[in-house]
Transposase-like protein (Ornithinicoccus hortensis), 116 residues
Amino acid sequence: MHRAQPYPQEFRDDVVNVARNREPGQTIKQIAADFGIAESCLRNWIRSADVADGARPGTTAAENAELREAKKRIRLLEQENEVLRRAAAYLSQANLPGKSCTRSCASWPATGSPSR
């Protein structure tokens, strides 16, 4: 589940831009207070913007979402593969020669088709 973001992306981008181009002596804490957000929040926004801009190593929010979706798809495919593997094993055991026949099978003639 994705939680709602309380601040629009445009606002975040503007605050990060102000923080990146701050006057000498002006702190991140002061900028955060001026915009009414927590200092840690602004630092997280700056870190995320640095990753998105390629200035810092890491994965972007879009890449993280894509990775989550890919992992979800892999889990689903692994489950489907397991079901198919078990079905194939079951069916191959049921068709082994010499395997005991069901009651309906005993009434079949030697040709292998059911008697009428």
